[in-house]
Amino acid sequence: MDTSQLKPKVDHSSQSGSEHKQDTKVQSRLPGFYELPIGERLSTVVKAANLSDSDRFHLGQFGSLNGELADVFIENAIGTFSIPLGVATNFLINGHDVLVPMAVEESSVLAAASHGAKLARLGGGFKASATEPVMTGQIQLFLKKTCDFDAVLTEKKNELIAFANRGHDSLLARGGGACDLDWHYIPEMKSLVIHLHIDTRDAMGANIVNTMCERVSALMPELLPCDIGLRILTNLTERRLARAECFVPASTFDSPEFKGTDVVDRIEKAYLFAYYDVHRATTNNKGIMNGIDPVLIATGNDWRAVEAGAHAWACRDGKYRPLAVWKKTLHGDLHGQLELPMAVGVVGGVTKLHPTAQSALKLMGHPNAKMLAQIVVATGLAQNLSALRALASEGIQRGHMSLHQKNLDLLQHHGSRVNSTN
Ligand code: MEV
Questions:
Q1: How far is the CA of 298 from the centre of ligand 1 (A)?
Q2: 373 and which of 233, 342, 414, 420 could share a cystine (Cβ 3.0–4.6 Å)?
Q3: Nearest Cα residue to atom 4 of ligand 1
Q4: What is the pLDDT of residues 204-259, one digit of tens each?
């Protein structure tokens, strides 16, 4: 990556170790905390941080997740954190109507997604596709002496893939399993990195991938003079991509204030701005993730994994670029497309156990992992379309602020309530 794009100007003058002040002294050493029942953990924290009954009430809420599940999902659980769950409308994806559940705290995200989907719908909706759900695991080796690893790995490749698949009969029966292996060498650290590619079907697959990598790595010292390094999946899932595209007729953007053809021109220029300018690209891609993350959260998927993959993918040519591409067509209409790594699952883990995630998947008609990946990417594209349309015409604040006003009103109301009780 060309780091000259990024010239941080950080003012360290106000940073000092003494800045972290607290009214009361909190004891953070809590031996055996993790072993306590969830209610006792909450009591311990309330006491340790000198919190009120009201704090205790809010920290200890469970929503649709009972305490038992919260306790199973993470360590040291004391409660759950609620954010709004909404449903984006107007989505037409590959000719099918879809209601898209989105869990997000930011006002205007749902309205923008629904508006973007409405614009795309006028041009026939989203056309989406996804690759097979192939994840990649990395096995890092440190070579102890020079050797012809190309020859060894070429000869043993099929054996290693078969070994990786041992004990995974049900995955194989569903058409998945390890399916390919390649490698590259990092001369700077004499490190050979093997990539094991695994079709994890409807699972996100992190556990399958890591398990297979650890097992296969144990064989390597018998084949090559090496020490074993890391064994872990990569979140840059280049073989697990999803893609969505849409056309929007220029006339769709016509308004008393703006000519649709001008709006198309300005959206194309907004894309180019992000293409050439890393600061704009970052904000543009944040807007895309405004659409993507909430669907991942609502379906119990690992949104940090998708975020990491998305931003690495955004700089695959060496510079950080906008994830979606917007162009004016020969007929003067708008065409947009978005493709990115999309490692999502619909079975296993939180997706399977979280009652809200289960109902969210049901709301979408029980998509398989490939279909969910397409819905997620279409939502990201809709979100970007809506933001760029506003930015390229009246500006973002008019729509954003009218929705945000509800938050401000509430804040003012809440503030006056707090003051009146003081
Ligand atoms: C705000 O959350 C997202 C936007 O800033 C995205 C963009 O600028 O493209 C509106």
A1: 21
A2: 342
A3: 287
A4: 999 999 999 999 999 999 999 999 999 999 999 999 999 999 999 999 999 999 99
Architecture per CATH, 134-233: 2-Layer Sandwich (3.30)
Q: Among 107, 110, 271, 283, which residue has the most ligand 1 atoms within 8 Å of its CB, making it the best to mutate?
A: 283
> Probe ligand 1: pick from 396, 397, 401, 403, max atoms within 8 Å of CB?
396
Domain boundaries, the chain: 46-82, 86-131+241-406, 134-233
User: Which tokens sit at 73?
Assistant: 């999902």
CATH number for 86-131+241-406: choose from 3.90.770.10, 3.50.50.60, 3.30.1490.110, 3.40.50.300.
3.90.770.10
- What digits encode the pLDDT tens for the residues 41-98? 999 999 999 999 999 999 999 988 888 899 999 999 999 999 999 999 999 999 999 9
Catalytic residues: 106, 286, 302, 400
